Every structure is written in C-alpha cells, then in structure tokens.
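Re-running Helix-turn-helix transcriptional regulator to confirm reproducibility after the cluster update. Everything else is unchanged from the original entry.
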Amino acid sequence: MTAVTALSPAAPAPERERTKRRLLDLVKRHGPQTAQDLAARLEISIPAARRHLCDLQEQGLVEARVEKPGGRGRPQHVFALTDRGEAAFPKTYSLLCVDVLRHVQSLYGEGAVLRVLDARNAEIAARLAPELCGSALPERLELLAQRLTEMGFDARLERDPVEPGVWFLVQHNCPNLTVARQYQDLCAAELDLYGALLGVPVVRESRIACGQSTCRYRIGPGSA
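Result of re-run:
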C-alpha cells in the first residue's frame, strides 16, 4: 500500500493577513529587513516569510533591494517599504496642512490662504499645460483625469447623454478632504485650475467636502 503524505492545511486567510500586517509593521519600525530576519522576528519559517513578502511585493507594498549590512560585508537582499507601503500607515499631513494655513491666515490676513493656493495651482498648471496643449477637449479631459487619479482623486469621465459636447469630470475621492472642509478656498482654487487648463466653462455640481458622494464638474458649452 502506498503511503499518503498528509499536507499541512494552509493558514486561514485572516491569519495570513495579520501576519502580513505584522511583517509590514516590522519593516516600518526597523527599516529594511532580510527574509531571515523577518522570519526570526515573526517566529515563522523562512519560506513562509518569503511567501508573505512575495504577496506584499505583488501588492506594491514592499520592494527588494540589494544592500551591504552596515555598509560593508557581503551584499544581501533586503525588503523595504514602497511609497504605497508607507501610505498604509497613519499620517497627519492633512492636520499639519490645516495648521499651516491657519497660521498663514492669522499672520497675513483673510486673502493669504487663497494667494497660497493660487500659487500652488499656478505651479500645477505650468506642469500640466504642456501635456494638454494642442489636443481636442476629449483628449485633454482623458489626460487630466489620469493625472488627477495619480494625485489620489480617483477621477472618471462621463458624457452628457443628451447634450453633445458636454462632459462630466467625476472625482470619487478627495485626498485633501480635511483641509477642504475647513478652507473652501481650496475647492474654489481647484475649480479655477480646471477651467484654466481646459479652456472651456467648468461648473461644479457636487462636492465631497459638503457631504456629497463625489465632486462632479460639468464641462463644456453652456456650463457657464
């Protein structure tokens, strides 16, 4: 009779996710780590640690590097957080931004915040304008939606089903929500930026900062 080797059951999905989270926490706390170091800290096998690291690499949360320990010795593979992995940890950037704008307003008056935001938009416009210049409106909108999505806005385009030449730019996320709720100048500056970049009338129909599910912009003839 042929012996049958029993296979160890795979760890339940929640347990695997907890292990991955612990692994990310260790890399965040201790910096780039080898698979061997992580396995020892987590008290799991090295192959198991490598499987978790492979999953995290596929998710874009960690990346492999070749480094010399302490700047000398034999090079070894270590795993470090990517920008996306860093973003998985809580940040206080929005609160810091609100504090900075509050101090700007206190020191330089009511219009100072809008001037700061206008300067920021001028910089963004200077960066995007060369890409948008010379193309038809649909192409400009597609490119703008792509760039906004890269900036965290999760932007999508919709055609007006009734009126030809009219589009809707719909943002499903506001990465600046904490700031936008306290400083409406941010949303006003955003609206001005889109109008300047697209060269056509733009009207905002809804706003996440006001409790609605999306920021929705009507773009094209008759939007004024």
